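Q: Joint fold for the lines below.
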Amino acid sequence: MKRWWVRPLVRTISALVLPMVVPVLLTLLLWALPGDPASIVCPPENCTGTEALAERWNLDQGPMHFFTEWATAALGGELGNSWRMQTGASVSTLVFDSIPHTLALIGLAFIPTLLGSVLAALDVVHRRLDPLLYLLGLLPAVILAVMAAAWKVLTYSEFGGETAALFLGAAVLGIADGAFSGAVTGTRSVSAAERQQRYTGVGVLRGETELANILPNITPALAGQLRARILHLMSGAVVVEVVLKIDGLGDLLWQAALVQDFGVVLPVTTIFACFSAALLLVQALVEGAAAVWVRWSPSGVVGSSA
Amino acid sequence: MIKRWPALVVSAVLFALLLLLALVAPEFLSGPNFDLTDFGPSALPPFGADDRGRPLWELAAQGARVVALPSVFAGLMVGSFAAVGGLIRSMEWSRADSAVQAFGEIVGAMPRMVVILIVALLLPRDMRGLLPLAATWALLSAPGAMDEAAAVAERLGGARFVEALRAHGYSRWRIFVVHVVGYNLRPVIVRQAAEVTMQVVFLEISLSYLATSNNDPSFTHPDNVRSWADILHLGYRALAFEAPFMHALFLGLTLVALVAGTTIGLSRAARAR
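A: Joint structure:
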C-alpha cells in the first residue's frame, strides 16, 4: 500500500523548487540559442554598443553569473530593468502594478468555475444539460473576448473602461475553453463514481448524507481539478488581458515576448511560477489534510479484538 | 444522440473542406482594390472583401494553410502519446507509469500560454511558425491524454485483459494494436487528437489576433500571409465600430464552427460501442 504522505510531499518539494527551476531553465535556454544573448537582444548590425549593454545586463560572464546576480536582486524585491519594451523602466514597478489586475481577473473568473464544481458535487445539474455544456465549453476564449471587447467599446460611456473590462474578462474566462462545463462534468464524474461505492450506500442506510461520506475521498481529486482549472484560467488570462486591454501580467508577458524583452519575460514568468507553486502547495495541504481526516479514528468505533 | 456513421461522414466532409481550402490557398493575396465601395458577398462573391478590397476567400484559404499541417501534426502527436499511455498501463510497466505521472506533474505545473509565449520568444525569427508552437502545445497536452488513456485501459481490464487475450493465443499485434489501441482506446485517442487539433487552430487564431490587434508581426506565420484572425479582426471592427464587415464576422465564426464541428463529429464517430 502506498504511503499517504508521498504525493503531498512530492508536491511540496515541486512547489519549493518550481520558482527556482523556471528562471534557471529560461536562463539556460537563452544561452543555448545560437549566438550570444547580448547579440540576440541587441544585434550588432542593428544597434551599437552591444558589449556595453552586455556588461550592464550581466550577460558578459555566462549564465551562472547572470542568474546569481538576477536571483540575488530578485530576492530583495528588485526585478531589474526592461531591456527593450520600456528600456530602463523598473520591472518591479511594472510587475507589481500588474499583479492586482490579474489576480482580480482570475479571482472573478474562478467564481463560476467554483459554482459549477459545487453544483455538480451536490448533483443538482441535470445530465440533460450536458450537450449544452459541451457546446458552451467549445467556445474559444479569443472569440468570446473579441465579442466582449466590441461590447466594451459600444457601452464605454455607460459602463466605463477598466472595471467593465475586468468583469467582462472574468465572464469570458469563466465560460470559455470549457472552464465552467469542465468544472461541472469533471466534478460530477469524480463524485458519481464515488456515489456508486458500497460504503456510500451503507452510510445512507445509517441515515448519513451521501456528500458527507464521499467528501473525504473526493477532496484530493477535486483539489487537483481545481488547481488545473486555475492554471487554465491563468493561461486564458493572457489572451483576455491583451484583447480587453487589461494591464495584467499576461498582457505584460505578451508585450515583452513580442519584442524579445528577456528582462521582463524572466521576472514575469517567475511570478507565474510562484503562483503555480502556491497552487501546488495548497493542493499538497488539502491532500495531506484529507488523508489525515480519512485515517483519523472516528469516535464510537470499537475494535473487534474479541 | 448522434449516430456513428453520419457523424463520421459529416466530420470527414468538414475536414476535407478545410484541407481543400488549404490546398487552393494562393501564395500571395490579390492586389488591393481601393475603388471597391461595397465589401459584401454580393459585390465580391463568395465571401466578400476585406478593408483593402481583397477577396476574403483568399484570407480564409491562407488561414487554412497556416493551421492545416501543424494542427494535424499536433493531433497525431497527442493521439500517439495517448496510445503509449494506455499501452504502458496495459502492460503494467509501473516504472514507466510513474515516470509518465512525474512528467505530467512537471509539464502541467505552468500555465500553457505562458510556456507557449516563452517558446515563441526563444525561437529565432527565421524559425518562427506555428509548427514548433503546435508541437509544444501537443507536448503540454500529452500527459492529460496519456493519463486518460491509462485510466480507460485500466477500467477495461488492464493487464488482466491482455493476459486473457494471450490465453486465447492471440498475437502481440492483435492484442495490443487491434484490441487495446483499436477497440479499447480508440474513443479516447481519437477524441484527444481531435480536441488538440482544434485547440491548435484556436491557439493560432488567438496568437495571430493578439498580434493583429496591435499591428505586430505574428509568431505563427510570415507577414505576407493572412490568418483567420485577420478575418475575425474585421468582424470585431464591424461589431465595435459599425464598419461594413459583418460578412467577415460571419465567415470567421463559420470557420471556427467548421473546426469545432469536425472535432465533435470525429469524437462522436469514434465513441465506444
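Q: Anything notable?
A: Chain B has a mean pLDDT of 92. Residues 152 and 185 of chain B are 7 Å apart (CA to CA).
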